[in-house]
Amino acid sequence: MEGKLWVCVSKSAVMSGMAAVCIGCCFAQTTATGASEPELPVVRIGLSVWSEPSNNEPIIRETLKMFENTFGKDRISVKMYGLEELEKVIRSNQLDIFQSSAGFYRRQLEYGVRAIATAASDRFPDPNSSEGSTIIVRKDRKDIQKLADAKGMVLAANSPNGFTGYQVALGEVARIGEDPNKFFSRTIFTGTGRGVHGVIESVLSGEADVGFLRLCFLEHFPKEAAQLRVLNAREVGVDGCACSTERYPTWTISATSRATPEISRAVAAALLTMPVTENGYYWGIANDYTSVDNLFKTLKIGPYEYLAHWTLQRFLSEYWPFLAFALIAVAGLIYHGVAIERINRFQAIRLKEVLRRQKVLERKSQMASSHIDELQRIGTVGLLSSMVAHELNQPLSAILLHARSLQRFAEKGMVQKMNEVCGDISAQATRAFNIVEKVRGYAKGNTQRQRVDLSKLVEKTAHDFELSRRSHGHIATHVQSGVFATVDAMEMEIVILNLLKNASNALRERSDGSIEVRLFTKENSVFLEIADNGEFFSKRDIELISQPIVSSQHAGLGLGLAIVRTIVEKHGGRIAFDANAERGLCVTITLPADKEEKDDSEV
């Protein structure tokens, strides 16, 4: 059986003035062995075109020799491509192995390519950072001292797809906070015609203000370099190449999805065991392409080109933290709304309960207030009726007797006129007497004395008074339990209410007013004390209020204390007034204590 393997290498030098060099050869070999041999696959290798001179070129020559030794000359096919053409053949699955810049390799990841080895050297031993760019200007351009000064000027570069000849340097523009797409007013791409050396020529001629070069390219032209200055210069490598940028991985050998596992394994073994070249280059492994990916993301090119356009992918990529925050915020608002709704329902239930209780309290307050008003009315009427009965009973009786005498005189023949007047006097006197008796009967209410638990009566009366909201101060009760006395309960309630009202009125102008109610027994007597911290009372004031029908209130008539005095004295007790140590008044009611064995006939 006959087997055929093709090797084709074509290389174009892109420097101006240099002829194209064809290093491709076609090998054909016919093997006739007497026995059938299986046909082996051709390993198709693609090389990206580079601008000469290049420090990496010797390692490519040695690598091609290594491939020949590994697979045989008739088992490999090698060809050089421009970047656009190389990308097409990779995407159409026509290559097994290809060599390119690290930037070009990262742009092909979506097509299933994987790096096998990356170039390194004695000068740049770290495969992850052995490549960069040099930014040049003419030495006589004093107006351009740093990269930021070149804003709005003309740039010269080799190719828009050049990694170290264009894209890496643009990354420095972004690093200083400028937009790489708008920083320069115009860009001249020298392309394959003039090559990278055309960038130097454009800057020296004044056609361009700034130029981008591959790292260590300028050092091959010392004459031109003497007329140029490097921006952001930093020396790297043992030979002191001037660099203006961060460093990235350099040339990379990659396998496509077309390569079989056997081909990839053989290529990897051959590359990593290949001897160091005469200029100190060898193949290593770069394990960190993060710098390349970040550069593409910054420039919005390659796999991040979508960032240059408003697409859903870009929107999600750039604003996912805000979207996540918004979703969390929305979820929080929903949760907050649900929680607030639950709280509102709970609060509504509580509010309804509070309103219900408030209505009950208001009804009780109205009832207590009405009861107090009724007691005060009864007490006032009782006092007035007592006063009217006491003062008018005897004069009215005398009028009645005189009227009857005058009537008898008239019967004995006196003037008719006198008879008529006497009749009128008698009628009016009888009417006045009936009115007084009727008022007295109403005031007394037909009540009688009985054994009363004063402890409960005092507590209830103080509570009702405070509940009626007529109190201007806090009421504190200190009541001894089980204090009994034989009294008229309604009249004793009138006494307590009048004293509380007087104490409360004395606190109108005070924000810290307080009333203390104390009930206790001592030596067969009951003592009821009601004290406030109202106005200051002098000795003269005490004497005045101790007199009947006198009030400490400017508009009062003293009827409250008169009622109290009347009721207390009617029950065999006494009332006393004392000024407190600091301010206010203390009223003390003393009543006989109820004995365990009392006379049932006592009224």
Task: Explain this structure.
With 603 residues, the chain is of the alpha/beta class. The protein has four domains: 43-127 and 250-290, 3-Layer(aba) Sandwich (D-Maltodextrin-Binding Protein, domain 2); 133-243, 3-Layer(aba) Sandwich (D-Maltodextrin-Binding Protein, domain 2); 329-444, no CATH class; 450-592, Heat Shock Protein 90. It is 43% helix and 18% strand. It is built from 15 helices and 20 strands. The protein has helices spanning 57-71, 83-91, 102-107, 163-175, 191-194, 197-205, 222-225, 261-273, 290-299, 312-411, 416-444, 454-467, 489-505, 539-545, 559-570, and strands at 43-48, 76-81, 97-100, 114-121, 133-138, 154-157, 186-189, 210-214, 228-231, 234-236, 241-243, 252-255, 281-284, 450-453, 474-479, 484-487, 514-522, 525-532, 574-579, 585-592. A six-stranded mixed sheet has the order 2-1-3-12-4-13. A five-stranded mixed sheet has the order 7-6-8-5-9. Strand 6 (154-157), helix 4 (163-175) and strand 7 form a beta-alpha-beta unit. Helix 1 (57-71) crosses helix 8, helix 10 runs antiparallel to helix 11 and helix 10 (312-411) crosses helix 15. The longest helix has 100 residues, at 312-411. The radius of gyration is 60 Å and the shape is rod-shaped.
